[in-house]
Design goal:
376 residues; alpha+beta; 3 domains; five-stranded antiparallel β-sheet; 17 helices; elongated
């Protein structure tokens, strides 16, 4: 037994130990497949150290991908860049640890600008890596490359603020933010920009989905039955808020939450009115039934910014209400969730997205769906 043989044996033992440690860093579900692939050739096994993502992609290929050509590149000793290209795998994934891969690696952005910038936002923690890769992949697919870079940064910056369950909504909002000729873009009051923080993005996206809900609940036509008649009493004008545009104008002027009442109005739960004097908006009035009373009542009467309305406005509103034959008003409430959404508004809103992405996702169906809307 020679010294050289002992040294070689020692080096091989160390090399095997290092490989086994790296192998254990892969997800337990796929560890067997990775090990089996690595055992086919020493150069494939070397990928565990030099390019963990490539080894994983060869062992756990995504659907419809044949890894044969990429495997041949590795075994033939070609460059890692060439092997990655054969595997249709971005080279920037080389820097991610084995822990990042918890399923087949989907198509990812690989433009020159993206490659340069994504390197600034890699997760430092291996524990964060799988979530980071998943959200970058999802946002790249659902929105666009700039949004994928943005979410990569935000997840590293404030991991607790990034809720994967909200990424569909944020991605849709980010996508429509740069689609200026679409109906969806028209409904955005604050568009996505790369310098936004996650908290601001969530607020803006929630505001956008509220606008969407108002439109798809009420559609383009005015509300046919406002229960009451427009009129004047004691110098106050009672003006119906019977359309999406009228509700939005009132909400903006009075700084209140009227935009959230789309479903409420569609299910015949209440009606909204504006109280004005000489053209000036004084208060917003909501009429509905409450408790066991089957007749319409004043549910809310608020000044601008939800301030307390003066007594004389309450008196005038009650007097105006009593000028109607309340017994004849149909205030029958529809069971929640049974009023269909407006199909024309739904199709007009989402069609540009379906066409651009060349698919109609199951979570954003062609048939108007309250369940899908609420799940965003």
């Amino acid at each position: 037994m020679t010294l050289n043989w002992l040294l070689a044996s020692r080096r091989e033992a160390v090399r095997t130990d290092v490989f086994e440690r790296r192998l254990r860093r892969y997800h337990p579900r796929f560890r067997g497949a990775v090990h089996a692939q690595a055992m086919r050739h020493a150069r494939i096994a070397d990928l565990a150290a030099s390019f963990p993502a490539l080894l994983f992609a060869l062992a756990v290929p995504r659907p419809a991908f044949d890894p044969a050509r990429a495997l041949a590149c590795v075994i033939d000793g070609r460059s890692l860049a060439e092997a990655a290209a054969a595997a249709d795998l971005p080279f920037w994934l080389r820097k991610l640890p084995p822990e990042a891969f918890a399923g087949p690696i989907a198509k990812l952005p690989d433009g020159e600008l993206f490659r340069r910038q994504i390197a600034n936002h890699f997760p430092r923690s291996p524990k964060l890596a799988p979530t980071w890769l998943r959200v970058v992949t999802d946002v790249a697919s659902l929105a666009h490359e700039p949004a994928a870079l943005w979410i990569a940064r935000e997840l590293v910056r404030e991991p607790r603020r990034v809720n994967p369950a909200r990424l569909r909504l944020i991605s849709l909002w980010a996508w429509f933010s740069v689609q200026s000729v679409t109906f969806g873009h028209e409904l955005i009051r604050r568009p996505w920009t790369p310098d936004m923080g996650m908290a601001a993005a969530l607020t803006a996206a929630d505001d956008w989905i509220t606008m969407i809900a108002l439109h798809v609940n009420l559609g383009h036509e005015p509300i046919a039955d406002m229960w009451l008649r427009a009129g004047q009493l004691a110098g106050y004008d009672f003006v119906p808020l019977d359309s999406v545009s009228a509700i939005i104008e009132e909400a903006d002027a009075m700084r209140n939450c009227l935009r959230t009442y789309g479903a409420n109005l569609a299910h015949n739960r209440s009606r909204l009115w504006s109280i004005r004097q000489n053209g000036e908006r004084l208060a917003t009035l909501r009429i509905g039934c409450q408790h066991r009373d089957p007749l319409p009542n004043i549910i809310e009467l608020e000044g601008a910014g939800n301030t307390k309305a003066p007594r004389e406005l309450w008196w005038a509103a009650r007097q105006w209400l009593q000028t109607h034959d309340l017994l004849q008003i149909n205030t029958g409430q529809r069971r929640w969730g049974t009023t269909p959404l407006d199909r024309a508004a739904w199709l007009s809103l989402w069609r540009p997205y379906w066409l651009a992405k060349r698919r109609i996702p199951e979570w954003l169906p062609i048939a108007p769906s309250r369940k899908a809307l609420q799940a965003l």
